[in-house]
Design goal:
This protein is α/β, with parallel strands linked by helices. It is built from 14 helices and 15 strands. The longest helix has 17 residues, at about 385-400. Bound molecules: pyridoxal-5'-phosphate.
Length: about 400
């Protein structure tokens, strides 16, 4: 008897458009020899950023001793370095037993949701979001309830909206700071407001802080957990961006603050962590040396530095495009511009992204890919060097000069 194999229903509402159909089309065009300018993916290596040579050397040196599995939580040397990093950032009450290393933060985002949610449980997730969060909540059987980040307030979370969305089923609040896709850094007052809501409803905080070391203009990142010693905060971080090591798959998750009455959840995390045995051990062996050295990105984030100059370039050229507005980012390497949908007749942002790709050979990610409800935004990753960015933004300007979707 022949069987038909369909994808699992668990995936029915799971989406991850950053690597979705438009990227497939761009890859097809590239294979056909077309020159597509990729402004769509936060992978520094693609844009000629190199992992520090000292870490590559360390990896070579460590390989013979990292052939076996490690403890499921990770190598002790790595966890000691992470615990020290937490102390420096005032992330409270994190011992080596509260740390889990992962194959990137990605694996741990999924794990943190799988261990927590029963069908129908709710998690507050930002809109726009880094879409893995919504996808992971959904895959775990939960419901992602989006709170609005308000462009008019520099994309800060709208605390009123957040509070109004808490229900009896809400289990946690996800905070991505600095944010992908908006590139903004939240001030302490906003974080305190989020903690207040979590405190009132006894919610777990999930702090995705993978860009905490990529902040510009002398601003300072405050770790969410540092403001909530009385709550459980799951803090996530890693080396993909700060040390230009995305391919090594190296992240971690720390349980900070008050773990009382959350023991069941922690048991679940321990079980899931044990089931995947451990994360990549050679990569783990680089956590301690990486955290002991200055961030490779640090020198790129100051005037004259590569990322800083690229941000200036993208902001300057975007501001010359009629019908486009934006909030200037403070961190990471993303910007989330707004299109005047009336002017361009845009009702479908995925179609806009495809039209842009086909006409100008530029690949961006449309706002819906970040669970943004209006068809009026898109994300640019400004990791390309200034000449390529200039070329891409010139093509973008040409495109908008006569684009009408309707
Ligand atoms: N969280 C955010 C906000 C991200 O932007 C990314 C990657 O772009 C990740 C998590 C996943 O990073 P990784 O799995 O490489 O650690």
């Amino acid at each position: 008897m022949q069987k038909t194999y369909l994808k699992s229903h668990k995936l029915d509402h799971v989406c991850y458009d950053i690597r979705g159909p438009i990227m497939d089309e761009a890859n097809r065009m590239c294979r056909a020899g077309e020159d597509v300018l990729k402004l769509n993916i936060g992978n520094p290596a693609y844009f000629n950023f190199k992992t520090p040579e000292s870490l590559v050397e360390k990896l070579r040196e460590n390989l013979p001793d990292t052939e076996g599995y490690s403890d499921s939580h990770g190598l002790l040397s790595a966890r000691e370095a992470i615990a020290e990093y937490c102390r420096k950032k005032d992330i409270p009450n994190v011992g080596v037993g509260d740390i889990y290393t992962g194959n990137g933060v990605s694996e741990l985002i999924t794990m943190s949701m799988q261990g927590l949610l029963d069908n129908g449980d709710e998690v507050l997730v930002p809109a726009p979001d880094y879409p893995l969060w919504t996808a992971s909540v959904t895959l775990a059987g939960g419901k992602a309830v989006h709170y609005i980040c308000d462009e008019k307030s520099h994309w800060y979370p709208d605390l009123k909206d957040m509070a109004s969305k808490v229900t009896d089923r809400t289990k946690g609040i996800v905070v991505i700071n600095p944010n992908n896709p908006t590139g903004v850094l939240y001030p302490k007052e906003i974080l305190e407001g989020i903690v207040k809501i979590a405190r009132e409803h006894d919610l777990i905080l999930f702090a995705d802080e993978i860009y905490d070391r990529l902040v510009m203009d002398g601003k300072k990142h405050t770790a969410l957990a540092s403001l909530a010693p009385d709550l459980l905060t799951v803090s996530l971080n890693g080396l993909s961006k700060s040390h230009l090591m995305a391919g090594y798959r190296c992240g971690w998750m720390c349980l900070a603050g008050n773990k009382e009455r959350k023991k069941g959840y922690i048991e679940g995390l321990n079980l899931l962590s044990a089931m995947r045995l451990c994360s990549n051990v050679p990569a783990q062996s680089l956590i301690a040396p990486a955290l002991a050295m200055p961030e490779e990105t640090e020198k790129m984030l100051v005037p004259g530095g590569r990322v800083y100059e690229q941000r200036d370039c993208v902001c300057r050229l975007l501001s010359e495009i009629p019908g486009i507005t934006f909030e200037r980012p403070d961190a990471a390497f993303y910007i989330f511009p707004k299109m005047d949908t009336k002017r361009f007749g845009i009702t479908d942002d995925e179609r806009f992204a495809l039209d842009l790709l086909k006409r100008e050979k530029i690949l961006i990610t449309h706002g819906a890919g970040f669970h943004w409800i209006h068809p009026d935004h898109f994300r640019i990753v400004y990791l390309s060097e200034v000449p390529q960015l200039t070329e891409a933004l010139t093509r973008l300007k040409n495109f908008f000069a006569d684009y009408r979707q309707d």
